[in-house]
Amino acid sequence: MTDPSQFNCDMPDYKACPKLLKGQKALVTGANSGIGEAVAIGLARAGADVVVNYVTNPEAAQKVVEAIGAEGTKGLAIQADVSKEAEVQAMFKQAIETFGTLDILVSNAGLQRDAALTDMTIEQWNTVININLTGQFLCVREAVKEFLRRGVNKEVSCAAGKIICMSSVHEVIPWAGHVNYASSKGGIHMMMKSLAQELAPHHIRVNAIGPGAIRTPINTDAWSTPEAYASLMNLIPYRRIGEPEDIANVAIFMASDMADYINGITLFVDGGMTCYPGFATGG
Ligand code: BGC
Fold first, then answer.
1. pTM of the model as a whole
2. How far is CA 202 from CA 152, 246, 260, in A?
3. Does residue 261 carry a catalytic annotation?
C-alpha cells in the first residue's frame, strides 16, 4: 500500500464549487496569507464578495483581491490591526459602506510568539492574547452590530449573520512552550460558545473551525524538512498535513445555509489530531 504520508490526494475540482454564498458579503481577517487567504478565495469561489483584511504586506493582500476577482466576485483590501479598537471600527465602516452590508465574518487573524514559561515576556503574552483573542472580540462585536441592524434577508440567507472564529486543535490540546497561544485558543472556544448562546435568538450563528497542522507560514518548522514532516505524522492519524483549502472548504460549508442548524460548535479539521494518536498503542 502507498504510504499515505508521502502524498496529498488531489483536491476536488474547485471550479465546480456550488455558489452556496451567492450575493453574500464576507470579511476575512488576516486574509493575505495562509488559511485566511485560502478562505477568502474559497468564499469568493462560492459567490461572496470578500473584504481582505491585512496588517502588513499590502502587495500580498492585493494579490488575494485579484484572485477573488478571477472567481467573478468583488474583493477589497483593508488594512487594520485587529487588536486596535478604532482600526477595527474604521475597517467595518469602510466594508459596510462599500459592500452595503455584511453577512459573514471569518475571524482568522492570529499569530504565535513561542517561549518556555520562564522565558516568556509580558510582550509575548500580550501580543498573542491581544491579536488572537481580543482581536476576535472586537471584530465579532462590529459584525454583530451590522447583523442586528439588518436582520434576516431571506433572499440571501436563512440567518441574520454567520460568524466563524478560527480556533485551533489547541483549544483542547495542551501545548507546552506555547501557553500564550493555547490560552488564546481556549479563550476563543468559550467566547464562541457564549456568543452562540447569546446571539442565537437573533438568528446569528457563531461557530469555530479548529485546524490541526496546516501547511502555512505559521508552522514552517513543523513540515519543511523530511525529518520534521515525519515527526509531525506521529501526531496525525490520517497521515498527511492539512492544506489551506481543507479549511476553506469547511468555511464555505459553515457559512452557508447548508449548515443553518449548526451553532456553537468547533469543527476540528485536523486529520484526527484531536484523537490523541499516542493512545493508539499506549494507555
Ligand atoms: C498552530 C500550528 C501547529 C498546529 C498543530 C496550530 O494552531 O498554529 O503551529 O502546527 O496548531 O499543532
1. 0.96
2. 9, 30, 13
3. no
